[in-house]
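Leucine rich immune protein (Coil-less): structure, please.
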Amino acid sequence: MELFNVFTNLISLNLQNNRITTLAGRLGHNALATLLMGGNNFAHVDLCGWYVPSAQLVSFALNQLSTVPECINNWTSISALSLNHNQFARFSIEKLSGMNNLKYLFLQCNKLTEVMLNSVHFPPNLEYLNMDLNNLTALDLSFIPVRTLAIEARLNVISSFNLNNSSHNVTRLEMEGNPMDCTWRTPLEQLYGECEINAAKYQYVDYNIKQCNVYRLFK
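Here you go.
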C-alpha cells in the first residue's frame, strides 16, 4: 500500500471488484477521504499502523470478513462504514466504540445470528444502523446510549423482541419481513404501537439468501 503514499493530493482510492486477498504494507495519507475496498476476497484485514486522518467513507463490503478490520476503531474521522455482504455471524458495537464521528453503519447481508448493542461503549454519534437480510432471531434495544438512532432490521427471523423495554433513543425501527414486526417510525408509534405476528414466519429465509446473492452477482 506504500505505493499510494506518494500521491499526496489523492482524496479517493478505489480498489473495488478485484481479487485482492491481502493488504501488504501501511498506507499513510493525510488527504485521503474515501477508501473503497469492496468486491474483493478479504477474509481478514489488518489496518494497524495505517495513518489516514481525513478518511470519511470506508467500504469493505462484498468480501469474506467475519471480524471487524483490526485497528479500524482508531480511525476516528470515519462517518460512514460499509461492512455489508460479508460473513459476520456475531457483532458487538463495542468494536467500533472509538469511532467518534461514525454516523452510518451498514451490516446488511451478512450471516448475523447475534448482535450486541446494549453498551456504554458505543460510537457517540451513530445515527443509522442497517442490519437487513441477516439471520437474527432476537433483538435487544433496551439500552442505546446515543440520542437518536434509526435501525433497519428487515427480513431477518426475529421472533423475540420486547417493545415495551426498548430505548426511546431508537427513533425509527424497521422490522418488516420478520416473524415479529414491531416497526415504528414516530415516538407515538413506539409508545402506543403493537407488534404484528406473521403466521408465515419462515417464508423470507430463502428469499433473504437469494436477495444477497443476486446483489453479489451484479455489484
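Notes: The two ends are 24 Å apart (CA to CA).
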